[in-house]
Structures are given as C-alpha cells and as structure tokens.
Amino acid sequence: MNHFTTQFRLNEEQVQFFQDEGYLIINKFFSSDDLQPVIDEINSEVDQRAKELHSSGILPHTYEELGFERRLTAITRHTEQVYRGMLDSKLKGPSIFNLIRNSKLLDLAEQLCGPELIASSVYRLRPKIPHHPWGANPWHQDSGYFEPYCDKSLIITVWIPLVDATEERGCMWLRPRCHKGNVLKHVPHGHGTGFLRIPEEALPGEAICVPVHKGGVLIMSNRTPHASFDNTSDVIRWSMDLRYQSASLPTNASIRRLPGEMIGGRGEEVPVACYPPEADFLVRSRVRQDEIVTSPEEFKRLREAHMAQPMSDRFGLYRFLETEQPIKEPAKR
After folding, report:
1. pLDDT at 266 exceeding the cut of 60
2. What is the DSSP string of 83-105?
3. Number of domains in the chain
4. Which residues contact 190 (CB under 8 A, 6 or more apart)?
5. Which of 29, 36, 193 is nearest to 124 (CA)?
6. Is residue 115 situated within a structural domain?
7. Which domain holds residue 296?
8. Taking the complete model, does pTM exceed 0.85, yes or no?
C-alpha cells in the first residue's frame, strides 16, 4: 500500500534532460521556511564556536553583527578553527535531518532512484569564504570518492545553495553529457584539501557555468564532472550537498535486505556500502516503513555510534593524506 502523498513530480522533459545531460536545475524548489531552520542551526554552531574562542582570547570579537553571509569571513582572518570545524562537522542537528527528509525532496529522489530510498552518508556543508585558498574544488566526479563497485549505479547529488550562488560567488561548473562512460582518472589534489581532481588532459567535453539562486536545487549524477572556483565576492557562498541512492545498492544502513538486493562485507566482491566511512540510513520505503529513521535523536545516535569502515583507495587519496604534512594555523591578522 502506498502511504505517501506525492507533493512534487518531475515532468517527462525534466527526467529526459537529467538522463541526457547528467544534471538538472529546479528553481524555487525550496521555500524560505524550508531553509531558514538550517541557516539558524548553522548560525548557532558558528556562534557557539566563536564565543568559545573569544573567551579563550583567540578571537578579539565574536562578529555576531556581521550575520550569516559575512561573519565567518571575519572570524577566519584571526583563526581557521571555526571554518575548519564547519567543513569537518558531522552535521546531525534536527534541522539538517529535517532537510534530508524533506518530503518534496524525497519525492524528487524517489523518481530518479526508486521507492526504496537511502540517504547516503556523504552529505556536506560547504562555506566558500571569499578569496580563501581552499575555496576552489577541482574538477572531479563524485564516483571518484565512492567504491568502484558502485560506478555504474546512480547516486544523485542534490546541491542546495543557502545564498544566491552566482559565478562571482563560486557557483558550480559542470561538463554535461559526460556521465555515461567510465569513471575518469583522478589524482590527489593536495594543498591540504583532501580533494581528488581529474587531470586537465583527461577532462572531457565543454564546461558550463550553472548559477543557482537560493531556493533552487541542482541535481547531478555521481559521474557528472563538476567543479567550483574561487569566490571573488564579499559574501560567503554557503551550500549543502545531499546524496541519495536505491536501497538495492550496497549500503551500511541497518535494514532487512529484500530479495535481489546486494549484501556486502569485508573481503567480498560487494562492498559494505558505496561510501563505507560514514553511516547511511533509510529515508523512504514501501515495505520497510518500520525501519525508516524518523527522528533527529535516532539520526544523531546513528551518526555518533557508526564505526568508520575502510574502503578501497583506487586513486591513492588516503595514501597521499597519510604522508601529507599537517597545515599550520596562519598567523593572526
């Protein structure tokens, strides 16, 4: 029995465009009411960290008056700690959880990935600070970071700007129609970022700039090459990227496996998940509704209890990171 009421449906032209081009932009997808709780949660996290650093004498001011679009830039002139903490933060607050489970967003993901839907562990907050040396993210495919077993399967990225993402602010760039072949060669990017990049000589097709206004979403295939470049504006380009996949793919979500679904394990051909280091969870199901993660508390426990599992390192990123020198805190300015 179908217990869900569909609030959003892609039309045939949109589905065909995504299949042909490897991406899709939907403008005005989210309302302000959808995004403001997430922004408030991020502001609260920045505020807490800033006040702690101010109390310890590292920050001369908390810069609260500068707001969401400028505060972190001012803080980072004195210390990288808050910025790095927001990049590394294992986001598990209720507003983040509610965004991942937004019913309209799950309607969209279901139409592309199927009704048994997993929220992938690989979701990230991206504060792109103006003129910051780590701001650019080089050309890559998301599959470059995933297990090779999952290369031919669809794992969608839903990229959500929390401010208007213009070219000046460092919006996304894509290479359309380059998502149907094999995963391209990647190499470690270096510079303390933990990024992979596609070497210039291996880049396919033509690049296009894809600005997206706040409230819009950009959906990409895991094999769509994409990048973002420096933020040359005076405001932070805040964004989030969420990922969804079918429960029929390898996943470490704690769920019953249905006939025909993949069950993985260490030493076997099938990996335990497409991205084993972090925890997947079930967000929509027709036949396992009692196994859907439905509360922020359960989500937080899941994230905190998960034991990171090793994954293959076909492009040598983890070997590279083990030998890379740690980055020193910059001098206070």
Report:
1. no
2. HHHHHH-----HHHHHHHT-HHH
3. 1
4. 320, 324
5. 193
6. yes
7. 18-31+92-323
8. yes
